[in-house]
Every structure is written in structure tokens, then in C-alpha cells.
Design a protein that fits this description.
The chain is mainly α. The chain has a single domain, classed as Sodium/glucose cotransporter, CATH 1.20.1730. It contains 20 helices and no strands. α17 packs antiparallel against α18. It is globular, with a radius of gyration of 22 Å. The model has no long low-confidence stretch (mean pLDDT 85).
């Protein structure tokens, strides 16, 4: 009864905020970007909660903690330094300035305006819609396992509950509702992960005893070195590096992450948001992977061959008190719903603004655009929910596989073209197309012809990381050998950076 009561209160708060924020969601700018007036705390927490979901807490923490031991914590550190701190420093200000100058509310719209190419905009929107769906399906999967552990609720009921609740508050309040709810969900995640780590470690006799126990674990199928699961780099540093690259650098090219920079309020918000976001990632991601690193201490309760890696974290938590289990459920529900809301917002706004508007429905006014976005939110949630049910009964049972495919395709396609186009006037339209096609085809081929790939690339995670790195080479190389962009057009896009603005002396010294 306590668990159910806590959940009901939580659901009521989410829906109430969605209804309260209706006044901010009357036009496209308000519904999709919150009027570009979102402060540092809301933006930083929206970024962090969209970043970390059940995919990380259940899928990645369990799988990579089991594979690499305590060294899996490097993935969390990478998420904080590369995926948060560096992403905000490199992309934050420039994205906010140029996206407003080009009047773009989505990543495909940015590409279309930056390169003067409606075709590029449509291509980007198709890639986003296709590859965000498997990522969304993975959110349901991770959540269902924890709900099943805590309440013995059928998987289909979990999917339905999460889908309906997310749809209500996103459709009602748009981006502002998701940002405020993300802040609340982020607070729950911060306190929840600390409490859960403490409880699990204490159940094994404290930190030093748990580390000693982990050092005594052996698995000759992985490594013969004694104490390898409690070591600095773990049994497989190379594959661990690919995990760090995919989960950290990937955020730089994900539309639902980059779009957070479009909505931030001002310079002060960027500076504060950078710090807040980094600390949030260090606690949440670092904590998740650190917790997962102790998974092998529960090997007497876990059968990976039968239950899969996604059963590791739920098993580790199953012995906690009812109050802590309720906290776990709300923590993962918070993480998953915040990410789901971000994904459906990115996908539906992209399809409406970049694909349907002007191409299929001419002269679409603001009111009609918001209506289409709301309808597509429902469509996207339904498709992803159905896919989640199908995926549950198919051979693709590991959450990490789904996320690896999605992140690899999206970040591989968009990271390099987006980042280079914020800084360099030399980026050609053709280089964007080559990067889009290369990453999309590579990840689709990895799904259907995985056994034909080199061994290092048979993992979707490794393949996705390689796609991102390849994009950083493809764009400059292709730009050298393809027609240069029109100088006048590009100069106009970059004129926004030269605009003078007055700031206080604490920000910059006068002459």
C-alpha cells in the first residue's frame, strides 16, 4: 500500500504540472522550446534526466558492471566529463546563438537553414524518426523488469501505464512541463541513487568488504588475472573504451539532447547549467555504473544465461526494504519517463516542422503545427509501445543492444556535421549527406548482417562508437573534395557570432 500510495502521489504531481504549463504551450516556440527562456537548473536537469534512463540504470549498469567490474565506473566518469561538461562548453553557447539566428527549433531544421537545403532537412527528420523508436522501446523494457519485481505487474500493463502518463503531461504542457517534471525527477534520481548504493553496499558488509569480495571473484571465460573485477581498468579495457565513447560522445549528436541548448535562457544560465549538469551526471551515471560493478557479488542469485544482463540490477535490489524498493521504482520511472518525454517531443516536432509542414501541408499556421505535434506524440508513443512488446518476445533481449543501435545511427549521422557546422564555414552539404548515409547504413547492416562484420564491430556498441569517430573524419575529408558552400550564404549564418552585446565587468573586462 505504501508503494502504491507513493506512486499515485507521484503520478498526480506529473499530471498537475502538465496541466499547469498549458499556458506556455500555445505556439510552436512555447510548446517545443519553452519560449527559449528556460533557466539553468531546469535546463541542466532536463539534459541529465534525458541522458540517463532505465537503459543506463538497468541495462548498461548491469551488463557492463558484470563484464568489467568496478572499472565500469569509467563510463559514468566519461558521461560527466565528455557527455556533459565538454558538450556544454563546446556546443552550448554556439548552438543557442546560431539556432535562434536561423530560427530553427529542431536539429533537421537547423541543417536545412544552415545549408539552405530542404532535402537535408527531410533526410535528417527521417533518420531521427526511424532510430529514436528502438531507443524508446528499450526504456519500456528496463522499467518493466523493476515493476515486475516490486509489484508483480504484467509487462504490458507497465508499458500502458508509462505511455499514458507521459502522453498526458507532454501533450498538455509541452517542453516547459517536461522541463519542470525533469527537475523533480532529477531530484528523485540524485537522492535515490545515493540511498540505493549505500543500502546495497551495506548488505555486503560495507565498501571495503564488498571490494574485497569482488577481488576474489574469478571467471576464466573473461580473464584469468586474480582480482581483475576490482581493478582499475577491468578485464577488457578496449571494449570498455568503446562503451565510454558511445555513451559519452554520443550525446553531442543526439537531437533530444542538443535541443536542450536551443531553449536555454542566457549566458548566465549556460555557465551555471554546465556545472549543474556535470555534477548531476557524475552522481547519477557514476553511481549507476559503480553499483553495477558489484553485480558479481550476487552471482549465486543471478543466471545471466537465462535472465539476461537486464536481470542483474533488479536481482541486486530485490532484497531491499519495501520503502527502498518503492524509491527504486520511482527513480527508474522518473528516469525513463523524462527520457521518453524528451524523445517523443524531439520526434514529433521534427516530423511536423521538418517533414509535414511545407512538404505535405502548405501554409500550416502555429495552431495547426502544435496540433500536429500533439497528435504525433500519441502516434510515436503507440508505435514505440507496440515495438517494445514485440521486442520483448524476440531475440533482441538486451537493452544495451537497442540503445547501441539507436545512439550509433543518430550520433554517427549528426555529431560531426552539427559540431563542425557550428564552427567551420567550410563544411559542405555533400559531407553531411555522406555522414548521414554512412552511419545509418552501417547500423542497419549491423542489425541484419552482424556475423559478417569484423569481430570488434559485431557489438552494436562498438559499431556505434566507430560510426561516431568515422564521422569526425568523413566530414572534413568529403568537404575538401566537394563543392564549397556559397560564401555569402555562410557568412550570413555566422554573422550571429559577430553581433555585439553588452555584459557586466564580472563577465568581461572593458577596454
Amino acid at each position: 500500500m505504501v508503494k502504491i500510495l507513493i506512486l499515485l502521489i507521484y503520478f498526480a504531481v506529473l499530471i498537475g504540472i502538465g496541466l499547469y504549463c498549458r499556458k506556455h504551450a500555445t505556439d510552436v516556440n512555447g510548446f517545443v522550446l519553452g519560449g527559449r527562456s528556460v533557466g539553468p537548473w531546469l535546463t541542466a536537469f532536463a539534459y541529465g534526466t534525458s541522458y540517463f534512463s532505465a537503459v543506463v540504470f538497468v541495462g548498461y549498469a548491469g551488463q557492463f558492471g558484470w563484464k568489467y567490474g568496478i572499472a565500469a565506473t569509467w563510463a559514468g566518469i566519461g558521461n560527466a566529463i565528455i557527455g556533459s561538461l565538454m558538450a556544454w562548453v563546446v556546443l552550448g553557447r554556439r548552438t543557442r546563438i546560431m539556432s535562434q539566428h536561423l530560427d530553427s527549433a529542431t536539429m533537421p531544421q537547423f541543417f536545412g537553414e544552415r545549408f539552405g537545403s530542404p532535402a537535408l532537412k527531410i533526410g535528417a527528420s527521417v533518420i531521427i524518426f526511424i532510430f529514436l523508436i528502438p531507443y524508446t522501446a528499450s526504456l519500456y523494457n528496463g522499467l518493466s523488469r523493476l515493476f515486475g519485481m516490486a509489484f508483480n505487474i504484467d509487462y504490458s500493463v507497465c508499458i500502458l501505464l508509462m505511455a499514458i502518463l507521459t502522453a498526458i503531461y507532454v501533450i498538455a504542457g509541452g517542453y516547459m512541463a517536461t522541463a519542470i517534471n525533469d527537475f523533480i525527477q532529477g531530484i528523485i534520481m540524485l537522492f535515490g541513487i545515493v540511498a540505493i548504493i549505500a543500502a546495497v553496499i551495506n548488505s555486503k558488509g560495507g565498501l571495503m568488504t564488498a571490494l574485497d569480495g569482488l577481488a576474489r571473484v574469478t571467471d576464466e571465460t573473461v580473464a584469468t588475472t586474480p582480482g581483475v573485477f576490482a581493478s582499475f581498468l577491468g578485464p577488457d579495457p578496449l571494449n570498455l573504451m568503446f562503451v565510454v565513447i558511445l555513451t559519452s560522445l554520443g550525446t553531442w549528436g543526439l537531437p533530444q539532447m542538443v535541443q536542450k541548448f536551443y531553449a536555454i535562457k542566457d549566458e548566465g544560465a549556460i555557465q551555471k547549467g554546465t556545472i549543474i549538469s556535470t555534477i548531476f551526471a557524475l552522481v547519477v551515471a557514476g553511481g549507476c555504473y559503480f553499483l553495477g560493478g558489484f553485480g558479481r557479488l550476487f552471482s549465486d542469485q543471478i543466471d545471466v544465461a537465462e535472465g539476461g544482463y537486464d536481470s542483474i540490477i533488479p536481482t541486486m535490489l530485490s532484497g531491499l526494504s519495501p520503502m527502498l524498493i518503492a524509491l527504486v521504482v520511482i527513480l527508474v520511472l522518473s528516469a525513463s519517463m523524462s527520457t521518453l518525454s524528451s524523445l517523443v517531443m524531439a520526434s514529433s516536432s521534427t516530423l511536423t516542422i521538418d517533414f509535414i509542414k511545407d512538404n505535405f501541408v502548405k501554409n500550416m499556421n502555429e495552431k495547426k503545427q502544435v496540433l500536429y505535434i500533439r497528435v504525433l506524440i500519441v502516434v510515436f508513443i503507440i508505435i514505440s509501445a507496440v515495438l517494445a512488446l514485440i521486442q520483448y518476445k524476440s531475440s533482441v533481449t538486451f537493452i544495451a543492444q537497442l540503445m547501441g543501435i539507436s545512439w550509433g545511427a543518430l550520433a554517427g549521422a549528426f555529431l560531426a556535421p552539427f559540431m563542425y557546422s557550428l564552427y567551420g564555414k567550410w563544411v559542405s552539404k555533400a559531407s553531411c549527406w555522406v555522414c548521414f548515409i554512412f552511419s545509418s547504413v552501417l547500423m542497419v547492416a549491423n542489425i541484419f548482417f552482424r556475423s559478417s562484420f569484423p569481430e570488434i564491430m559485431q557489438s552494436p556498441i562498438n559499431c556505434g562508437a566507430i560510426a561516431m569517430i568515422a564521422g569526425l573524419v568523413i566530414v572534413p575529408v568529403v568537404s575538401i573534395f566537394t563543392p564549397k558552400p556559397d560564401k555569402t550564404f555562410v557568412d550570413n549564418a555566422f554573422a550571429c557570432y559577430d553581433k555585439e552585446t553588452k555584459v557586466s565587468q564580472k563577465t568581461a573586462l572593458g577596454k
